[in-house]
Amino acid sequence: MKKCMLWAAMLAALLSLAPQSLMGQDKTIKRKVAIGRFSNETQYAKGIFYDKDNDPMRKQALDILSSKLALSGKFILLEREDLDVLMKEAGPEGMAKIGADYLILGSITEFGRKAQGQEGVFTSTKTQTVEAGVSLRLVEAATGLIIYSDEAKGYAETTSKQTLGIGGTAGYDATLSDKAINAAISQLVENIINKCMDKPWRSYILTYDDGSYIISGGASQGLQPGDAFIVYAKGKSVKNPQTGMMVELPGKPMGKVTVLSSFGDTPENELSYCTYEGQDIDEDHLDKYYISDK
Questions:
Q1: SS3 62
Q2: Residue, of 268 and 208, whose pLDDT is higher
Q3: CA-CA distances (angstroms) from residue 180 to 57, 72, 174, 274?
Q4: Where are the domains of the chain?
Q5: DSSP codes, 83-119
Q6: What are the distances in angstroms from CA 155 to CA 66, 152, 210?
Q7: In sequence order, what DSSP letters do the residues of 198-255 get, joined into one string?
Q8: Section 105-130 average pLDDT
Q9: 49 CB contacts (<8 Å, ≥6 apart)?
Q10: Is the dihedral of CA 256, 209, 223, 251 positive or negative?
C-alpha cells in the first residue's frame, strides 16, 4: 500500500512539470514529416506530350514547401512522392514503415497569367501578372486523420516601361510562377508548423535489452542524454458512431524514461537507450505503451 502511494506521488510530481522542465528550457523535438505527392490539378501547359511525373510546376511547389519547412529548423523531412503507396500505408503499421509523424499532401489548384499594356504619347508600359492557388493537407500518421486543410492564393507581377522607344521590352518572366506559388505556400506553412508543434511528440518503446529500454528517435531529432519523457499505457480504442472511425482514449501515465545515449546514422534508423522509473510495464507487450513529451 505504501509503495503504491509512493509511486502515485512520484507520478503526480512528474506530471506537474512542464514539458520544458523535463527536457530543459527551449528544447524542441523535431517532428518527422513525409512530404507525399504534390500534384498539378490545373490545365496550364498540359499538352499532348504532358508527363505528370516531370511537371515543372509540381516540382517547383514541392521544392518551395520543402525549403520553407527545413528553414524552420523544426522538422526532419522525408520526401515521398508515391501517393498510392502512402494511402496503402495509412494504417499504423504502414506509417511505422515510413517513420513519419505527419504526412503533407498538396496540389496546385489554380494557375493563370495575363499581360496588360498601356500606350501613351511618349511612353508605353506592360504589366505581367501571375496568380496561383495551392491546397495543402496535413495528416497525422498515427491515426490517418486530416488535422489541417486549407487553400491559399498568391500573386506576382512585373512591369516594364518604354519612353520614346527606350527601355525594357520584356518577354514572359518565368520567375513569376515561382513567386506566385511561393506567396501561396507561405500563407499556409506557418499554420502547418503550429499544428505540428502544438501536438505532443510521440515515440515508442521498441525493445528491452540488457537493463535498458530502447526507444525510437535520436540525436537528429534533438534527443540528448538526460532528456526525460513520460511513458503512457495506451488508452482503449473505441469506435465513433458518427464518423465510423476508431478513436484512442487518453493514455494512463506509468512512469518516465531518461535518455542515456543514442545511435544510428539516419533519422529513419536512429534509436536511444533509456532507463525507466515507474510502475511495472509488460516487457512482453511493449506495443501497449507510448512515450510523450507532454
A1: helix
A2: 208
A3: 11, 21, 11, 47
A4: 2-27+201-292, 31-198
A5: HHHHHHT-SHHHHHHHT-SEEEEEEEEEEEEEEEEEE
A6: 20, 10, 59
A7: HSPPEE-EEEEETTEEEEE--GGGT--TT-EEEEEEPPPEEE-TTT--EEEPPPEEEE
A8: 76
A9: none
A10: negative
For residue 45, what pLDDT is reported?
Answer: 66
Distances (CA, A) of 69 to 167, 186, 201: 40, 10, 17
Identity of residue 245: M
**Assigned C-alpha cell, 93:** 503499421
Closest CA to 129 of 178, 180, 59, 169: 180
| 45-to-91, 157, 178, 201, 255 alpha-carbon distances in Å | 36, 19, 15, 42, 58
Residue 136 confidence (pLDDT) above 70? yes
Q: What is the pLDDT of residues 155-180, one digit of tens each?
A: 888 877 655 555 555 555 668 888 89
Question: Does domain 31-198 sit in CATH 3.40.50.10610?
Answer: yes
C-alpha cell at 20: 520544458
Per-residue pLDDT tens over the stretch 50-99: 677 677 888 888 889 989 999 998 999 876 555 455 555 554 445 545 57
Q: Which CATH class is domain 2-27+201-292?
A: mainly beta
The torsion angles phi and psi of 99, rounded to 5 degrees, stand at 65, 30
Please report, as a single letter, which amino acid is at residue 41.
E
Cell numbers representing residue 77 in the block: 523531412
Q: Which three cell numbers stand for residue 132?
A: 496561383
Residue matched to cell numbers 520584356: 170
The phi, psi pair for 205, rounded to 5°, reads -80, 120
- Using an 8 Å Cβ cutoff, are 195 and 149 in contact? no
Name the nearest CA neighbour of 76 among 213, 198, 215, 196.
Answer: 196
- Mean pLDDT, to the nearest integer, of 187-195? 91
